[in-house]
Design goal:
501 residues, MFS_trans_sf, 2 strands, Growth Hormone, Chain: A
């Protein structure tokens, strides 16, 4: 008898009681819960982590890279746009990109729970590349803002899907790699600081899309298929991945169906048109209610969405205008090259943060009745340190201090985002993961939309300080990071050491 056979047999005896209790906590039905456990067993013990997942890791990383590439690319061109196009307020470009990000995150994240992860994963970078190339030829400020909004729409739908898709293809033993994807985030910022030109960024993004679509044969998530009642397709996906990894699986369609015979929690049948119509009304609460279905889920989902929103305002208040802050700090002795040099150094310092985050997310220790460490501790620690370094940045009096504190903040911010992007999809179950990620990402972008508004209010037309003070946006950013750290401590669910449903 195989390990999976034994799992199915032993599972059937006390199945109803244990699954019912788990489903009340996880917000999923017993049919999907049983299938998810079998798929997790198959991924861990038979499919393993091999060639397919390594390829998926790199290509999913392109999504992280593209997201920050364009966010920082927009920030980087602000000083030059101010010179070349003389707009009434250069911050309107940042407003445009965030307007697009909100729409894209909501739409594509929601679509992932209705028509699957694969379509959104493939099309987002294609659209980003097209609009990015077009933005390189914008002839005026209005055209540039319009195309930047389209870029935001495309790239904004990428991250809510990428993390979910990668998580659902890997065994529990390798879930820490979801944290390491944040290294691509810093690489994106570094590339943006070195390239600067939007034509080049558009072509680079299009090349990443080509690798995803034409070179790699992406499989739909087996967990999404099982949640949709498409058990046979789920088995085919597992068989394909196992074969790519040079392995075989013993999990069969009969065993998967036996986990909950005749039952299927979710079924997405119908034409493409009907599915699209349903996806546009996805916030009809079919995938939202389960995220708040119990007291623990309500508290955890509410807090994680609030944390995303708080960080969503804090991060762009500093990073979205960092080239402007650096240029203003250098002032009399400054040059554009010197500003971008310091910005590139700051970008490089963010990359090691991903490595530290990977070490911290699975580090846990028992202390009496309590367990310390894990995702929550790593997230709280990196967030509070980010706030501290930004407070110190506002007190800096020379270039060395400015650069040092911005580098330290870049390091801790990248560690923070690495943990946040790992914890969030882990805490949402597969049937509703896309919607949960979409809610977090959309709220993150909505609050981010306020960043340029605050920047406009607190600084004058020529970049000088208003009565509020030039450091006011950075001070607000630092304070918000501190608030986010406090909210993290209050999260009731820890995902370290647990297989994602």
């Amino acid at each position: 008898m195989t390990g999976l056979d034994e799992h199915v047999e032993s599972h059937s005896d006390s199945k109803h009681e244990s699954e019912l209790a788990a489903s009340e906590t996880d917000g999923v039905g017993t049919a999907y819960l049983a299938k998810s456990h079998l798929i997790n067993q198959c991924l861990q013990n038979e499919v393993g982590f091999g060639r397919y997942q390594w390829e998926l890791f790199i290509l999913s990383g392109f999504g992280w890279l593209a997201d920050n590439l364009w966010l920082q690319g927009v920030a980087i061109i602000l000083p030059q746009v101010q010179i070349d196009l003389d707009p009434p307020r250069v911050e309107y470009i940042t407003l445009s990109v965030y307007a697009g990000l909100i729409t894209g995150a909501t739409l594509f994240g929601s679509l992932a729970d209705v028509i699957g992860r694969k379509p959104s994963w493939q099309i987002t970078l294609f659209l980003t590349g097209v609009f990015g190339i077009a933005a390189g030829g914008a002839l005026n400020f209005v055209a540039l803002c319009s195309l930047v909004a389209c870029i935001g729409f495309s790239v904004g739908g990428n991250l809510p899907v990428d993390g979910a898709l990668f998580l659902e293809h890997i065994p529990q033993s390798h879930q820490w790699l979801l944290t390491f994807l944040s290294a691509f985030w810093s690489v994106g910022q570094l590339i943006a600081s070195l390239i600067v030109w939007v034509y080049t960024m558009g072509c680079l993004t299009f090349a990443m899309f080509f690798c995803r679509y034409a070179i790699f044969q992406l499989q739909e998530s087996s967990k999404f298929l099982a949640a949709s009642g498409r058990d046979e397709e789920a088995i085919h996906v597992l068989q394909y991945i196992a074969k790519r990894n040079g392995r075989n699986i013993t999990l069969t369609l009969e065993k998967l169906k036996a986990a909950n015979p005749g039952a299927s929690d979710y079924s997405e049948n119908g034409s493409v048109a009907s599915l699209l119509k349903k996806s546009f009304s996805v916030f009809s609460l079919e995938h939202v209610r389960p995220l708040f279905s119990t007291k623990m889920l309500f508290i955890n989902s509410s807090l994680i969405i609030l944390i995303w929103g708080t960080i969503g305002l804090a991060y762009p208040l500093f990073n979205g205008f960092l080239p402007l802050y650096l240029a203003d700090k250098l002032h009399a002795s400054s040059s554009t090259n010197q500003t971008y040099r310091d910005y590139s150094i700051t970008s490089i310092c963010g990359i090691p943060g991903s490595i530290v985050a990977c070490i911290l997310v699975d580090w846990t220790r028992k202390s009496g009745k309590f367990t310390i460490g894990g995702r929550k501790m790593a997230l709280a620690l990196s967030t509070i340190l980010t706030g501290l370094f930004l407070f110190l940045f506002t007190t800096a009096k020379d270039e060395a201090s400015d650069l040092g504190f911005s580098c330290a903040a870049s390091f801790t911010q990248n560690a923070m985002y690495g943990v946040l992007y790992a914890y969030t999809p882990e805490v949402f179950p597969t049937p509703h993961r896309g919607t949960g990620d979409a809610l977090c990402s959309a709220f993150n972008r909505i609050t981010g939309l306020l960043a340029p508004v605050i920047k406009i209010i607190t600084t004058s037309r020529d970049g000088g300080s208003s009565s509020i003070g030039a450091n006011a946006p950075v001070f607000v950013s630092a304070s918000l990071f501190m608030v986010a750290a406090l909210l993290t401590v209050l999260l009731p669910i820890e995902t370290a050491g647990k297989a994602a449903l």
